Each structure stands twice: as C-alpha cells, then as structure tokens.
Amino acid sequence: MALRDITLGQYFPGESPIHRLDPRAKLVAMICYIVALFLGKWFVSYALLLLILAAVVKVSTVKPRALVRGLKPVVFILVFTAVLNIFYTPGQALVSFWIFTITKEGLLHAFFMVVRIVMLITCTFLLTYTTSPLALTDGLESLLGPLKKLRVPVHELSMMMSIALRFIPTLIEETDKIMSAQRARGADFDSGNLIQRAKALIPLLVPLFISAFRRADELATAMECRCYHGGEGRTRMKQLHWRPGDVLFMLGALAAAVAAGVLGCWGL
Amino acid sequence: MGAIIETKQLTHTYSQGTPFEHTALDCVDFSASRGEYLAVIGRTGSGKSTLIQHLNGLLKPTAGQVLFDGADIWESKDRTRQVRCQVGLVFQYPEYQLFEETVYQDIAFGPKNMGLDRDEVDRRVKQSARFVGLEPGVLEKSPFDLSGGQKRRVAIAGVIAMEPQVLVLDEPTAGLDPSGAARILDNIRTYHQEKNACIILVSHSMEEVAREADRLVVIHRGAIPFSGTPERVFTHGEELEAMGLGVPAMTRVFARLRSMGVDLPASVYTIPQAREAVLAALHRREEH
Questions:
Q1: What is the pLDDT of residues A84-103, one digit of tens each?
Q2: In a domain, B202, yes or no
Q3: For residue A37, what are the contacts with CB-CB under 8 A and spacing of at least 6?
Q4: Hey, which residues 11-70 in chain B have their CB within 8 Å of chain A?
Q5: Beta-carbon neighbour count of residue A227 at 10 Å?
Q6: Do residue A184 and residue B113 have CB atoms under 8 angstroms apart?
Q7: In terms of residue numbers, what domain contains B281?
Q8: Hey, how many other C-beta atoms are within 10 angstroms of the C-beta on A75?
C-alpha cells in the first residue's frame, strides 16, 4: 500500500543527544542552517555544511536510508530545477545545439541548487524525525510567544498545528480502510480517464469527510469535558528548559551560518 | 464437499524491509466449502482481518496462493475484479462507508459497479433490502438519517446486493445492542439458507460463533491451531483460555460441574443444549 509508506511529519523515537535537545534550540538551529545554505557560494562552504549535517545525522542515529526515502517525493522538483538552471544560465558555452546552450556556469549553478535543496530537505526531515510533534509545537509556541503581545493567537495556532499533525496518520489509516471497503464493493480507483477517476473518489471522500467532522466534533467535546478554554492561564506538565547543550547547539548553528556567510563573501 | 475458497501456505508480511516489519500470517492453509457457515475466531491482532482481506484480493499475499473455485485469484486483473464480486466482504463498522444521497443508491453502488442493467440492479436492491429487513419507505431516505443499527443493515445490504457466493463479515455485531445484534445474525442466516452461500463470520464472541456456525477456525499469531465443529474446538478449553479466547460461559459451567463429579456431557456450549443436558441428567438420577 502506497498510503502506508508516507513519512511526512513522522517521528522516530530515540534516545540520542539530538532527540534530547530542546525543540526551540533545534528550530533555531534549523533556521540558521537554512540561511547558511543560501549564503554559501562555492564548494568550500558546501563541504563545510555537508560535514556538519553528516555529523548531526551520525549523532542522531537516524538511518540515512530513512532520510533518502524522504527525498523521493521531491525528485521531480530537483530534476526540474537542475534542468532550468543548466539551460538558462548565461556564461561560457560548453555544448550548444539547436536553441540550447549548456554553459559551465549553468552546470555549476544547477549542481549547487540541487545540493542546496537536498540538504535543506534532509535537515528539515532530521528535525521531524528526532522531535515529537508535541515537542515541536510546544517549541514553536514558545518561540512565537512574543507575538502574543501583538494579539497574534499563537497558542491557538500551535494547538491547531499539533492537532493536525496528530491526525495525519489517523486519516491515512481511515482512507486506507474506506478504500478497501469500497474496493470490496467493486469500486475502481486505479483505471479510467481523469474524469472517471475523479468521480471514483466520491465514494472515498464523502465518508472520509464525514468521519473527519465526526472526529473533530468528538475531540472538541472531549476537550470541553476537560475544561479546555484556550491558552489563558494554561500551565504545562513538561516545561521547556534551556540547558547548556541547547545553547551550544544553537551557537554552533549560528557559527556555521556566519562561516558560510564569510566564505560566501570571499566567493568560496 | 469441494472447497469454494482456499488459501495455500498463505504468508503476509506488512511493511517489508522497514523497521516496522511484521508477519501477520505465516503459511496458513484455510478452506471453506460451498454452503458452509464458518466462523473465524481470534483476538485482536491475531491476523484474522489480514486473512479475510486476502479472500477477495484486497491484500496480495507475500507468499502462497489464494484459490477461488480452484483457480488463483491473482491470475489476471480481470480475475481479481471478478472474484471481488463473488466474495463479498463486510468490514467492521461498515456504516462508515455509506456515501450516497439515498439508501437505494448506496445499496445499488456494488451491483452498478458489476455492470448490471437497471432492472437487475433494481431487483437486487429490493431483494437485499428485504433480506436485511429494511422497510421499502427507508430506501428513499438519506442513509445519514438512520439509526446505527439501520445504517449497519444498509451497509450489509450493499454487499449482499452483489449476491456473492461467499459472504465474509468482520464483527458484524460490534457495538450493537443485543436485539440489533440478533436481528443482524438472523439476516445473515436467512441469506445463508436462501442462497446456499458460504458465510465466513469473524468474531471474538464465543457465544455468538457457537450458536451460529457449523465450523470454527481459530487464528492465533498468524496460524490456525484448531479448526472443526464447535464441540471439538471447545474441548481445547485450556489452550483457548491461554490464547485469550476462552470458551462459552455454558461450556465453562459444565466443565466445572463435571470436575465436581456431576455426570454431564462435555460438549455443551449453548443454553438450549445445556437445558437438554441438565434435564437428561435429572431424569437419569430419578431412574436410579
């Protein structure tokens, strides 16, 4: 079943130092790292960033295979970007046929773009693989906390996010079940033209929506029963605490971003 | 009796090649004959749902074969589709798969997918509605306005309308009140008798399977340790107990009475049988 293989937002529980880091530290570090990826210009900076990523993956005990699997859905985007960059970058021509010209700059540009995207996706996957959705939203809420002063409903947003993440696997399972049930009644989801296929989705989508609404309603009732009334005056069982390791990790990521920036300025 | 559906050395492994790899069925040989009323029992996670999803080709075996009428159901794409119409599968909580605007249209979904003409679809919808005891007035209502028990009967009618030769039901009475459950079991029995169809009832209620089925198949950890008539299967009381299944309350009572030295037969599993046995025993005692 293709549906079961979706790894979006999946969390692999573990005990590594990366798993134990404060989610806020990981979020900030990820943002620094992404900035660094776009500041880098030449092989030297990317080699440095790759080294850092490899070291973090190693410490996190996440299997590299799981990370590669996460790249599968974006292969198309990667190829597309590479092709665009190869053909549309002006510079010193290497090969030229009909209306197409491949330039040396184009090849390098395409290569760096692909490397950037691959590393960007790998590092975001590393974050979701090593951080439970709950910790992630807690971290986000805490980081966005200052926005509360501007009347941004930070708590509500993060609650919505954690509920959405929580229900992804449930809905996938539900879809799987309804698909099987309708298949058993002779429904055909895999053949026919586009219109037939779209029509074939009705027996799947109607029950799925109904059950999603039913679940939402039940969840709302359950939350009311436990006196949930928004973020006002709400305390947490698991408080987030900064530890020296977290600060060090963030500073490391910041240093990487600065290093990439400096190297980028020198054109390395 | 020839088997209408059977599995040979059926093995199924979920998520093969990932850390979540799990073998749900391990070399299972299972068969059901035409016109047989069979019950599959096993606790949650024993592999019974995996087994029944193989019977109509919803899951593909990792190894082994599934045969319908002696031929492999995975021979060709057409064959698989054809078998899906011959082996009707009613999932757990089937009311959640209703989607049409009226009950009539929902029951007609299966027969329409089989490519039948309008008159035949109409005949089948009306007949299956009668089988499950839905009044004609209900057919024009929205399925979402019905009660839980009625919804379930509509969903079962939707599968019966395909007139399958084998009807597989996964816990058809789960979550219903006793009278609703009894009505559904009655409907299934009627279908079994009138169409001479093979029924495969999945359940973990010992009382229910003991009352309904001619033969029991016990599934435990992806294998079939026992199968046979209820009398025979229930003689393995202790083993069943160890599998977390147990035997019907009546059988337990009688086993206890026997251990206390009362002269009673061991193969009692329903209340009417118990009544007979107790009366016979009292009669014997009076004669002495």
A1: 887 777 777 777 777 777 77
A2: yes
A3: A49, A116, A119, A120, A260
A4: 14-15, 53, 56, 58
A5: 6
A6: no
A7: 248-288
A8: 9
